[in-house]
Amino acid sequence: MNRIEQIFAKDNKVFIAFVTAGYPSVSETLDVLDIVVDNGADIVELGFPFSDPTADGKVIQATSQFALDRGFKRDDYFMIMKKFRQTHPDTPIVVFSYFNPIYQYGTDNFIKRVHEVGGDAALIVDLPLEEQNDVLTVLNKYDLPLIQLVAPTTPANRLQRILECASGFIYQISLRGVTGMRDEVKTSTADQTELIRKYTDLPVALGFGISSVEQIRSVKSPVDGLVIGSALMDLLIANGSEYKDALGRTTRAFAKAIHERD
Amino acid sequence: MNYPEIDIATFDGRFGEFGGQYVAETLMPALSELTTAFNTAIRDPRFLDELNMYLKDYVGRPSPLYFADRLTRHLGGAKIYFKREDLNHTGAHKVNNTLGQVLLARRMNKRRIIAETGAGQHGVATATAAALFGLECEIFMGEEDIRRQQENVKRMKLLGAQVTSVTSGTRTLKDAMNEAMRNWIGTVDHTFYVIGSVAGPHPYPLMVREFQSVIGKETREQIQAKEGRLPDVVVACVGGGSNAIGIFAAFLNDPGVKLIGIEAAGCGMATDKHAASITGGEIGILHGSKSYVLQTDDGQIRSAHSISAGLDYPGIGPEHAWLHRSGRVEYKAVTDDHAVEAFLELTRLEGLLPALECSHAVAYVMKAAPTLSTSDIVILNLSGRGDKDMATVNQYLKDKAEVAKR
Prior knowledge:
The complex is a heterodimer of chains A (262) and B (406).
Chain A: H1 3-9, E1 14-20, H2 26-38, E2 43-47, H3 58-69, H4 74-87, E3 93-97, H5 99-105, H6 107-116, E4 121-124, H7 133-141, E5 148-150, H8 156-164, E6 170-173, H9 189-199, E7 204-207, H10 213-219, E8 225-228, H11 230-239, H12 243-259
Parallel strand pairs in A: 1-2, 1-8, 2-3, 3-4, 5-6, 6-7, 7-8
Chain B: E1 14-15, E2 18-19, H1 28-41, H2 45-59, E3 65-67, H3 69-75, E4 79-84, H4 94-107, E5 112-117, H5 121-132, E6 136-142, H6 143-148, H7 150-158, E7 162-166, H8 173-187, E8 191-193, H9 204-212, H10 214-227, E9 233-237, H11 242-248, E10 258-266, H12 277-280, E11 282-286, E12 289-293, H13 318-325, E13 329-335, H14 336-350, H15 356-368, E14 377-382, H16 390-405
Parallel strand pairs in B: 4-14, 5-6, 5-8, 6-7, 9-10, 9-14, 10-13
Antiparallel strand pairs in B: 1-2, 3-4, 11-12
Helix pairs in contact in B: 2-4, 4-5, 4-9, 5-7, 9-11, 10-11, 14-15
């Protein structure tokens, strides 16, 4: 079993924490990752900052732009992954990126580096099914899954085609919109989760908009895991250099809500 | 080289290796719905009749092909014709496309229109079409552009559009487009996104090309009627590239017609302050399609610079990438300085105030025409009028005078 399979094989639901690489700085990203993992996150989704994040809301736009303004470079990304892997041998790392930074480096070069530094999967937010061929070929070479996204707008026949190409786990988008905190996440995601399970045995993680313990409790039961990103990054923004306690506390509360039995 | 015909019914959105649909999964079903709706509409005589009626009676088409006699004599070379897109309602070629897309939106029962805009020309043309059909309209515009283009902001508001200031990234056109895409991701069920150039994911580059191709079709007939033959050279400015595709499309399979696209070289190609994606960029992915893009070694999108807000964009439509790669169209770049000189000279010589965008193409023609034979025919797409650029040009001249004084 690989690292992702091992995590989902456990009895409890899985907490996937999104962290923007380079925020608030390259070295502090490692502190942030330590805190979220030490306080209960099971999988880390490491965001590659991009100048034009069209699928992201204000919080991740802000953390990404901040990292780039501070001079974040591609090598920093791999350095973070490498160091994290040394101290956390069992925690899966999912590469989260837009396609251009990967394409510009050369898909082969990029994925090879991901493999070398101990990455476990890639999620490319602007690379839908129709554009995946080249990337899938390279990922297969290194036995790395491409995490498929399913949206509330995805019709059933398309869903089936997406799931035929899926590996690792399925990322179910909870709402029509970009990433970011919402007061309410519709609980009607359960119908689509059920449909997904008709076509695949892979675990299903739900993400986008989840930002409170109450929401976690209301949406978690049909799925195998939850992704939380903006709510964590917003804490970093709001607390400045004093983020450590707040981040630890909130992560712990999220982890408890995700891990506890219904 | 014979340029392959694009069959709308079967076209998959790929111009060779360029184009595609690099967008979030949430938008894929909407793009598929749009592709189907467009393919049906563009072959439906009722849709075309209605569009053509509006182009004729509302926009004022066909736009004239004007022989620039004084300019021709002044330069002492090729005969120069202007395709007068500046005479369209709203003052540029943009309205050809926005009317087509808004009519399509109405056909698809979308009640809300969104669009991005840089200088405000596409925003005004979209707000105009939305007003004409009584649809709700929101225009996304970079904070920086709102500051520079107050008049167009006022026009859009008068037309009933909501103008939303975009404060992310460089606060210009590319960020306005990011924000429009984000908004569309959240409103896709009832909202139609009107993209202003031959950029974006499929079917936009194809759709905008079709709606703008009226420029080339008219030009071809008009030059045949006036000269009894096709031109030797067709020149157009290129930002995203919609006016250029519009006029080039009718001549792609005429190897005797040389096609030239003029990008914005800004402060010069030796600097990093330009907007020439083909001349100075690399292949990449921006706003849903693969094409030439201004970017860093790390694949971050660089900000563009041009005195002309309409060319101030770090990407270019995928069909242009293909036309460049195949060698069918030659792309060159003209600086801010030369564009402003051409703006001033054309105004005095012909009484025509060209938009700063097409002033780039005018500058090229002024340089090239004297080297051509007097029997050669050059057609320039005068894609818009320059009234909107008065403040920019005056500021530029003031800054130049300051520098000269020091």
